[in-house]
């Protein structure tokens, strides 16, 4: 069987490069992989080899394969990344080929997806922890603000009581002034 890797690696949100097509290719052509004898070829060679019977099947990893995997990793998609499988006839090789692809994808990309999911989950846990800390600090600030407001209200009440006492003194003084002015007027009128 032939395998064609047209995939273009992508850069994730961070600075990490994701070469999902190369990862799939490396898994399928690993020395311990005995399901099929793979030939890594160009698209033209694969097409002519399929037509001439050199290859029973061709697996083409599309140019967008890494982008599809990245979209799943970043939560932008839940669609399973796809590869194209072509065969010259209904051969048992196609069944083994499909099995090898599923196993490879489950082993390599599944691990990558799982690690990324755990990374994202742990990052979210840290964010939640930070947010809870911020909320606790906010609650402490609110408590201190309430204490300050209570102290201010007490000071305001004391000031209002002093104002009342002052107004009473002013009123009393005004009454005395008025009485003194009347006495003065009577005295001036008598003189």
Question: Can you tag this structure with a few keywords?
Answer:
4 helices, alpha/beta, about 190 residues, 4-stranded mixed sheet
Task: Give an overview in words.
With 191 residues, the chain is α/β, with parallel strands linked by helices. The protein has four helices and six strands; from the N terminus they run βββαβαβαβα. The strands form two sheets. The protein has a four-stranded mixed sheet, sandwiched between helices. Strands 2-3 form a two-stranded antiparallel ribbon. Strand 2 and strand 3 form a beta hairpin. Helix 1 packs antiparallel against helix 4. The longest helix is centred in the C-terminal third of the chain and has 99 residues. The chain is rod-shaped. It starts with a strand and ends with a helix. The model has no long low-confidence stretch (mean pLDDT 77).
Average of the residue pLDDT scores = 77
**Helix segment count?**
4
- Structural class label: alpha/beta
How big a fraction of the residues is strand?
5-15%
Terminus-to-terminus distance = 137 Å
Using DSSP, what is the number of strands? 6
Helix and strand element order: EEEHEHEHEH
Q: Order of strands side by side in the largest beta sheet? A: 4-1-5-6
In one word, what is the shape?
A: rod-shaped
Rg:
42 Å
**Level of helix content?**
55-70%
Query: Low-confidence parts lasting 5 or more residues at pLDDT below 50?
Result: none
Give a short account of the largest sheet: 4 strands, mixed
């Amino acid at each position: 069987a032939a395998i064609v890797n047209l995939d273009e690696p992508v850069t994730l949100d961070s600075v990490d490069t994701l070469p999902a097509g190369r990862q799939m290719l490396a898994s399928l052509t690993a020395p311990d992989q005995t399901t099929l004898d793979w030939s890594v070829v160009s698209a033209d060679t694969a097409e002519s080899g399929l037509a001439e019977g050199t290859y029973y099947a061709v697996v083409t990893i599309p140019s967008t394969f890494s982008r599809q995997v990245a979209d799943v990793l970043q939560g932008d998609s839940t669609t399973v990344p796809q590869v194209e499988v072509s065969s010259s006839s209904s051969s048992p090789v196609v069944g083994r080929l499909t099995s090898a692809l599923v196993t490879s994808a489950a082993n390599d990309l599944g691990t990558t997806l799982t690690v990324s999911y755990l990374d994202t989950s742990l990052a979210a846990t840290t964010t939640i922890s930070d947010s809870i800390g911020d909320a606790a600090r906010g609650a402490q600030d609110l408590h201190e603000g309430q204490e300050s407001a209570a102290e201010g209200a007490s000071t305001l009440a004391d000031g209002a009581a002093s104002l009342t006492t002052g107004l009473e003194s002013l009123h009393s003084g005004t009454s005395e002034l008025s009485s003194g002015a009347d006495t003065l007027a009577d005295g001036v009128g008598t003189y």
